[in-house]
């Protein structure tokens, strides 16, 4: 697992702006109150390996194999960092994931550990030791999680390690036998194959599985307008919507659209894939996507971030943090944030910088941080890791969190 360096601050902003649309290009809004604050990590939270988000929590995993969480993972006060009670010093950790309420740890021997809310000791299962784990897929709003074993069998797993094998026969009937990845919403999943087809599984409450409605036993083929257009390189899920990123930089979305996360021009939900576009970013090349509960985030090649649907709002009266909370006095994000009114919805745009270069999301919060591994070659990452290991350097590592309604 490669190290990530996260620099920045806990960040809370207020959006009390108003604006009007003008000639298809929205008028820039004036943000009357924007306040950014810093909450530093505990001293041992330096040298971060990974940042993981659940619906209402953030977990950081450091070079000492320690886990620190901020939020409701263990029903703690949401405004303090807490160390998870996991005997992890000698664990050989392969990867870490999260769903709505659980932290999921995959070990090198394919043991799975789950740290569940309100449970002191992590649960452990060895059910995949024999067949091995090929991939795990979940998201910050996913109720369960998906495991693909090395025999290409697909299982839906609960936090209590109850497993249900999902029928994938339709993939093989269509000669789509190579699973690339699976996008996860709360109760629905989109499986993408190497031949650019999409198969849906789960419960569809707002059209997120298109014409399938719900399919509770098997992955079924979904017709898309982009199957022959461009390669699918990513799928992200919110609570009830999906966003698909193509290699061409074009974005499609489907599902819940009450506040515009799927289509900015229409307030109806979409049970078919619609192109997510607007003059603000139609000439931008989008190379990364992120989803919160009802929000979509587009990150462009030119390092602009567009928050659509759920956008950043203040935590009013957030004055009960510990003494590590300091006023940042304005930073690169504060100076570059812009807000636009579009059809009664707000789009916010932020210019990333060397200080903050990546965005991840939980259920109702965004994290803006410095992803050390982004755009780094593997050889350079290896060289730097070896150098840091030798020098035993310590770095300040903070992150920025934007809360949403």
Please provide a brief summary of the model.
The protein has 405 residues and is mostly beta strands. It is 6% helix and 39% strand.
What does this structure look like?
There is one protein chain. The N terminus and C terminus are likely disordered. The protein is built from 3 helices and 33 strands. The strands form 9 sheets. The chain has a 6-stranded antiparallel β-sheet. 6% of the residues lie in helices and 39% in strands. By secondary structure, the chain is mainly beta. The chain starts with 20 loop residues before the first strand and ends with a strand.
Largest sheet: 6 strands, antiparallel
- Rg from alpha-carbon coordinates: 21 Å
- Overall shape: it is globular
Count of separate DSSP helical elements:
3
Helix content: under 10%
DSSP, total strands = 33
What key attributes describe this structure?
3 helices, 4-stranded antiparallel beta sheet, mainly beta, 405 residues, 39% strand, 6% helix, disordered C terminus, disordered N terminus, single chain, 6-stranded antiparallel beta sheet
What's the SSE blueprint?
Layout: E1 21-22, E2 25-26, E3 28-29, E4 37-39, E5 48-53, E6 57-62, E7 67-71, E8 81-83, E9 93-98, E10 103-107, E11 112-115, E12 123-125, E13 133-137, E14 145-149, E15 154-157, E16 163-166, H1 169-173, E17 179-184, E18 188-193, E19 198-202, E20 215-222, E21 232-237, E22 241-246, E23 251-255, E24 270-275, E25 286-291, E26 295-300, E27 304-309, E28 325-327, H2 332-336, E29 338-342, E30 345-351, E31 358-361, E32 365-369, H3 378-391, E33 400-403
Antiparallel strand pairs: 1-2, 3-29, 4-28, 5-6, 6-7, 7-8, 9-10, 10-11, 11-12, 13-14, 14-15, 15-16, 17-18, 18-19, 19-20, 21-22, 22-23, 23-24, 25-26, 26-27, 27-30, 29-30, 31-32, 32-33
């Amino acid at each position: 697992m490669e190290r990530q360096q996260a620099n920045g601050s806990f960040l809370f902003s207020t959006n009390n702006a108003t604006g009007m649309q003008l000639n298809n290009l929205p008028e820039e809004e004036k943000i009357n109150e924007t306040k950014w604050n810093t909450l530093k990590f505990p001293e041992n939270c330096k040298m971060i390996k990974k940042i993981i988000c659940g619906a209402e929590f953030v977990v950081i995993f450091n070079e000492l194999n320690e886990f620190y969480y901020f939020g409701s993972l263990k029903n703690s006060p949401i405004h303090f960092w807490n160390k998870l009670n996991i005997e992890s010093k000698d664990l050989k950790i392969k990867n870490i994931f999260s769903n709505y309420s659980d932290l999921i740890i995959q070990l090198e021997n394919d043991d799975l550990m789950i740290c569940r809310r309100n449970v002191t000791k992590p649960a452990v299962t060895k059910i995949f030791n024999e067949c091995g784990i090929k991939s795990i897929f979940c998201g910050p709003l996913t109720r369960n999680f998906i495991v693909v074993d090395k025999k290409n069998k697909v299982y839906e797993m609960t936090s209590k390690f109850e497993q249900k094998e999902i029928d994938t026969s339709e993939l093989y009937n269509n000669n789509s036998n190579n699973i690339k990845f699976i996008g996860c919403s709360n109760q629905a999943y989109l499986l993408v194959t190497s031949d650019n087809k999409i198969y849906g599984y789960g419960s569809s409450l707002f059209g997120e599985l298109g014409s399938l409605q719900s399919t509770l036993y098997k992955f079924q083929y979904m017709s898309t307008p982009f199957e022959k257009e461009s390669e699918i390189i990513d799928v992200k899920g919110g609570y009830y919507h999906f966003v698909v990123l193509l290699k061409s930089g074009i974005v499609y979305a489907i599902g819940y659209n009450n506040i515009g996360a799927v289509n900015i021009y229409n307030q109806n939900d979409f049970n078919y894939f619609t192109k997510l576009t607007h003059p603000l970013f139609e000439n931008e090349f989008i190379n990364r996507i992120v989803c919160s509960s009802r929000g979509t985030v587009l990150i462009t090649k030119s390092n602009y971030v567009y928050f659509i649907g759920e956008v950043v709002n203040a935590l009013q009266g957030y004055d009960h943090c510990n003494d590590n909370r300091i006023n940042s006095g304005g930073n690169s994000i504060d100076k570059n944030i812009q807000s636009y009114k579009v059809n009664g919805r707000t789009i916010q745009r932020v210019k990333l910088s060397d200080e903050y270069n990546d965005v991840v999301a939980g259920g109702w919060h965004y994290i803006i941080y410095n992803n050390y591994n982004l755009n780094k070659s593997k050889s350079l990452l290896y060289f730097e890791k070896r150098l840091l290991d030798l020098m035993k350097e310590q770095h300040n590592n903070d992150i920025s969190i934007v809360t949403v309604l």
